[in-house]
Each structure stands twice: as structure tokens, then as C-alpha cells.
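Hi team,

As requested, here is the filled-out complex form for the manganese (II) ion run. I kept the field names the same as last time so the parser does not choke. Let me know if anything looks off before we queue the next batch.

— J.
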Amino acid sequence: MPVPRFVVQQHDATTLHFDLRIEDGGVLRSWAVPKGPSMDPAVRRLAVPVEDHSMAAGEFEGVHEGSSRGSGAVIIWDEGTVDLVRNEPEHLSFVVHGHKLAGGFALTRTGERRWILVKARDEQARPGSDITAEQPASVRSGRTYDKLS
Ligand code: MN
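And here is what came back:
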């Protein structure tokens, strides 16, 4: 069995946001995370569930043609493998092995279309860090989203 993968894409659409996608059952379960993930366990990030995406969607880096708002640019901000530790209807905990993200995270449903993403307090945690600002570029191309379009 191949190891499940995760990807975080940065997407310049109506608003600039991140899309967290986690492989589960042959699709990518997906959440839009406006501010992106944090390696600081004290930081709680809103994660809005969106429809499952195909595995192929997680490979996309480029510019969506005809984007009505924003440039439509997408970069693969991080990717790697993921171990789903708990997979419940309103809670996921998982361990990622990415280029930027590492260690445990939890996603917990707190409302109708509202989940919270938080870093686990483990050896990979980096209190006080702001990884999306520190490491803005694509892990595939080294480019930032504004250099694609
Ligand atoms: Mn998006």
C-alpha cells in the first residue's frame, strides 16, 4: 500500500488562502485555511471544510484560467506523507512528514462549516514561529504565488 499523502496549496482566489488536503480513501479531503497552518501549538487556525478533491488536484501548481477573482495562481506550498492517527466524523489527528510541516496536528469541528487546525505540542512544534511568512515559496518550484502569473 502506498503511504497516504498530504498537500498544502496556496491559492490566490477571491482571497489569498491555503488549501489543506489529506488523502483518505482515494480522495483528498480538503479544508480552506485562510491563514494557513502554524507550527506554533498556541495558534488556532480556522479551517473551512470544502468538497473532496481528486488526487490529481493535489498535484496542480500553475494558474487557473478564467479565475474571476484573484490571479488564480496555485503553488504547492508543502507536501509529503501523512499518518492518520484518529479519523472521526468531527475530529482528525494526524502526523505529517513534509518539507516545512512536521509532526502532529489536529483538526476539530467546532461549528456548521467551521473546523479548527492546531499543531500538537510535540518535538516538532515551534512556539512563536510563523512558517507561512518564513517559508512562502513552493516546495516544487521555489517560486512564490505572485511569481506564477
Ligand atoms: Mn482554494
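Two things worth flagging: The chain has a mean pLDDT of 95. The CA atoms of residues 77 and 138 lie 5 Å apart.

Thanks,
J.
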